[in-house]
Amino acid sequence: MLPEYGRPVQELLAELTELKAGDLPVRGGKVTAYVYDTGRPEIHDAAHRAYAEMLEVNMLDPTAFPSMVALEKQVVRAVADLLGGDAATPGIFTGGGTESIMLAVKAARDHWRATTAAKSMAAGSTVADSTVADSTAAGSGAPGDAGEGAGRAPQLVLPVTAHPAFHKAAHYLGVEVVPVPVDPVTFRVSVPAVEAAIGDRTILVVVSAPSYPQGVIDPVEEIAALAASRGVPCHVDACVGGWLLPWLREAGAEIPPFDLRVPGVTSISCDLHKFGYAPKGASVLLFADAALRRRAYFASAAWPGYTVINATVQSSRSAGPLGGAWATLQSLGRDGYLELGRTTLEATRRLIEGVSAIPGLRVLGRPESSLVAIAADPDAPGGAIDVFVLADEARRHGWFLQPQLSYAGIPANLHVTVTGVTLHGVEAMLEVIARSAEAARLAGPAAVPDGLPELIASVDLEALDDATFSELAASVGIGLDGGGPQEMAVVNAVLDALPAEIREAVLVRFLSAIYS
Ligand SMILES: *Cc1c(COP(=O)(O)O)cnc(C)c1O
To answer: What is the phi/psi pair of residue 91, to 5°?
Structure first.
């Protein structure tokens, strides 16, 4: 509630410190997802100060605040230089990977609409092809109208390992996802399956460099060439890898070509708030040509107020994240990133080697970056280790390993994002993983209440009231009244037993309950 009288700043900051006491630590390397620590406090301090300096600048209007145009051009240029572009490469600074992806999909969709409409004009209105004729209406600027109804929606060809941000973009933009399987051993998308999935409604083909779940790089060269031969744009999702892979390569890792140098790649996303080590709210989307970038833009003069020209989804937004990202790049420099790349590579190699030596555990695929998925060996003597129980054990020792549910034939596993700060603690991490694995083996799998997944799958979640949902949650040990749940193994096991659509419905209920 709003206090009657204003409170002093010391008191406010003390309250924030108190609130944050229950959070995972953002520094130190014991949290192996969400946060990216350089291990160099002076770098983060530079970012904080530049962030604060730019905090009140509004990116809504580039003519009012030219400082942010200058900063954005510098940041986009730095990313373009690293990813095979040059001074002329068009880009957009966005608020994160999801926003970069949203804009890449929007640009591709609008390009498809315009070119399909143009083709239909050229063919004349008497053409008997209903797809072309109907798309004319869509191309004329009425999104999601009858022209793109059922069976005619534009399509996104997407590996099953691609980030959910693409599903979100498709959902928001009226695009249909055509999922493509990955190889069960390498976890890279299947080229023939992509070829079979491309049709005349395909607006964009996506590859990841690397994909988040197993840290492997899709066959970018082959897929981009294939897409180009079919006249379809190709987006490389290098959100996590764009500012990592080049440094790993320079440090000696084998990294196949994945960026704008690859013929057929039309856009690429690169998050600076991941391996750029910038504060959150920083990503860059690059395009192979300026016409495609214009398709990502939005302008409106359809009201009696100020004219709106937006490069991003948000309109009014702070230039703080831009200032923070710029300062991080400038204060680390080439040398700083290369050094972080070296320690990241060394720590990743050590982690993979160490995990492979722990009885009952294995690494999925052959990670080509620094993202490592740790799964149970299904044939281990005495039965497979429950990785969710392992994660809870590790959490008790102060380490957070990120659970990943089974999906599309890929087993449940734990995700570790190795960063520059991991190396100094990698032996300690391996010790904790080994000890937790042994404890999980002794404890056995999480006890899922009999029939609970079936019950959840059969109830109409929409019809439950919050009290009933809370009871259901309590039955698996989750109190929804504040304080993060510590014992997640049962929850993860229940979710893991459910099909994806039901998992999604449960998660929405869960989120709504935490915020009630
Ligand atoms: C993190 C990530 C994203 C989405 O990024 P946000 O910044 O969380 O919106 C997209 N793709 C990949 C591969 C990622 O790792």
So the answer is: -150, 175
